[in-house]
């Protein structure tokens, strides 16, 4: 194993182990998407017209909630950078004889692994809540969600590299997450939206991650799957480059 691969492995493993050892955080992370399915899925089920999509609302909602879980988990995983700065570990990383891009990649890998853990639970439990999910489609959606998680983590790293307090990071991240989530089509069909809202949804990269996941899991999608994958991968490249640039300029 090369030195860079070892660095990525050990740093990513450190963040994943730290996440798994925090039992309260793990429990909260797993319960949050299931509450969305129960509260929103069953609460708005009667108001949803299955004729518009061909599936019931719970099945329609699950892919959106799975993508939402990736968004929240991957974005907030970057708070480890603020934590490392607070306790002096970041200074050790910044003076290590490895490229900054390697450190960023390790953080992105760790974020995608923890998000994948949460998504797996959502997709496994959702049939027990009445969702009709294609198992093969759910497996095929994993690479899309991993790429999206890495892209979101890169955005979180960009923000965290400029923050010195937990409060500052939390405020900016919450400001970013809300519009990204609510204007993604995770909770509603994209057909029949007002033109202004439709334009915003089309500009939102998460819309394409949701669309790909929903298309693979329940067969309902608005864009071609190839376009969804291309937008997610393009977003990963752009945000990854931005994260490396911000992290390279960071001072401990």
UniProtKB/TrEMBL annotation:
A GO term from the CC aspect: ATP-binding cassette (ABC) transporter complex
Keyword Heme: no
GO MF annotations, alphabetized: ABC-type transporter activity
Membrane topology according to the record: Multi-pass membrane protein
Domain of life: Bacteria
Positions of the ABC transmembrane type-2 domain: 24-250
UniProt keyword list: Cell membrane, Membrane, Transmembrane, Transmembrane helix, Transport
Sequence intervals crossing the membrane: 30-48, 60-83, 104-126, 138-160, 172-190, 223-244
Keyword Cell membrane included in the entry's annotation: yes
Subcellular location: Cell membrane; Membrane
Family stated for the protein in its record: Belongs to the ABC-2 integral membrane protein family.
Designated name of the protein: Transport permease protein
Organism annotation: Polyangium spumosum
